Task: structure prediction
Amino acid sequence: MNRRKAITTVVVGAAAVATAGVASAADKEIEVFTSHWRKSKDLTLKVAQAMPPENYSYKPFADARAFGGELQHLAQAEGFYLTPLGKSRAPAAPKGDTSKAAT
Result:
């Protein structure tokens, strides 16, 4: 085997090993991210279900969003972030209706 083939073989082999390591690290990061996202989703849905319907219009202070409006805003943000990943767009938030049923 000549020197050029030997060097090419070593470089290609090293690149393959490096790529496998990067792919493995990326898979781990995706796993951590999706695990965190699932936990956040579960907690958010539990909080939404626990809030009585009459309190969905609750605002801690006058300039704040209502509780239902905040959940709708969160859902819109999720849709915004997921759309580039090939997911369908989130449904539009109901205008002016922050009730539990609408949310």
